[in-house]
Amino acid sequence: MTARSLARLQSAGRLTLGAGLAVAPGTFAGAWVGGAADTRDGQVLSIGLGARDVAIALGTLRALQRRRGAAAWLRAGLVADAADLVATLRARDDLSPLAVPAVAAIAGGSVLLGAYLLSALD
């Protein structure tokens, strides 16, 4: 599989998760932050994070299609994923014991993949 194909797959995953966070915050964010996702406060954050990921995914996909400019979008995704990872680890005592390793694996893996893709593309 090429780096470009991996970047498309990562973007498709980001688009799916972001849309889920924006459209169904109680379901998608609930697995991450528990009952906070059922409150209006938690939903505001979930919708904002979801929109962020949708924008990063669409920007990356467009840049990949045009074969230029993907590095900036990949970097944005890497920074967003790193922030998600750090925020989750900082709040680990207040989160579900299942959420922390799941988010650490997903966000951490995406950070590593993003770093590889930055070195392999553009």
Topology:
Elements: H1 3-23, H2 25-28, H3 30-33, H4 40-66, H5 70-90, H6 99-120
Helix pairs in contact: 1-4, 1-6, 4-5, 5-6
Describe what you observe in this structure.
With about 120 residues, the chain is mainly α. It has one domain. Helix content is about 80%, strand content about 0%. It contains 6 helices and no strands. It has helices at about 5-25, 25-30, 30-35, 40-65, 70-90, 100-120. Helix 4 packs antiparallel against helix 5 (about 70-90) and helix 5 (about 70-90) packs antiparallel against helix 6. The model has no long low-confidence stretch (mean pLDDT about 95).
**Coarse shape:** globular
* H/E topology pattern: HHHHHH
Count of helical regions: 6
Distance between the termini: 17 Å
Strand fraction equals: under 5%
Q: What is the total domain count?
A: 1
How many E strands?
0
What is the C-alpha radius of gyration, as a whole number of Å?
Answer: 14 Å
Largest β-sheet summary? none
Record keyword descriptors for this entry.
mainly alpha
